[in-house]
Design a protein that fits this description.
200 residues; mainly alpha
Amino acid sequence: MVLKHIWGLFVNPKREWVSIRNDKCTVGKCYAAHVMLLAAIPAISGFIGTTQFGWQIGAGDPVKLTLESAGMISVMYYFAMLVGVYAIGWMIHWMGKTYDADVPLSQCVVLAAYTATPLFLIGIMELYPVLWLNMVVGIVALSYTVYLLFSGVPIMMDISEDRGFLFSSAVLAVGLVAFVGLLAVTAILWGMGLEPQFTH
């Protein structure tokens, strides 16, 4: 069933992680039934929000992007999320040997995909981009994502809670480094002439 685990991750995460692990989902099935659908939420919402409503900071007029610029950014944003989930899954698999966790790559990608669920869902807030509201709700979503990571790693990687805590902390550090790297790539692309184009 498409997206069947989302509700369980919010109601009873530990029980749902067991169910997710027992599904033994492949990378392709996980992407088709979960990642590709949920990653579209922030990409599409961001496109609509930045072209129809715009960002408003303070008392100034809303700042909107052109359709072409917003479209290009949304497509790149979407593919960055698809690549990001796989990259984090691959890193989890690579680090697994350090923590005596010998599980298939597909299970690691599934762990990364379902951990990111709150961040995908919160993308709906980009439909009407209000900076302070997006930041508040974003912090809540990020906090729950971290909770899902720490509760999911011991179950999905079949290791003890103590070892799982250390493993989760390492994964979180990798995720933060990846985020900083993404910001750096974005700055480079903007410097190469791919910066956002605003309406007048």
